[in-house]
Amino acid sequence: MNLLFIFPLGGVAMKEEERILRMDHYEHGIVINALNALRNDLIGQQRPTDPVDDLLLKAIDAPYQKIKRRSHHAAR
Prior knowledge:
A two-stranded antiparallel ribbon has the order 1-2. The protein has helices spanning 25-44, 50-60; strands spanning 2-9, 17-24. Helix 1 (25-44) packs antiparallel against helix 2. The mean pLDDT is 82. A hairpin with a 7-residue loop joins strand 1 (2-9) and strand 2 (17-24). The chain is of the alpha+beta class.
């Protein structure tokens, strides 16, 4: 199972680009846990968590994409 993250890059005046990260279920869990730990640290420091919250939600809601693999028989 692979997750597909698409992050828009650039500002208002810049051409919008996207960055795609492909990761398996285990890697996705690491990202979620790391962002949650960062969020908890910010809460402990009484700092705003809005950017981390947005990124955490984006990571949680990232779409799945099936990988298209050719069968070893298809190459014949």
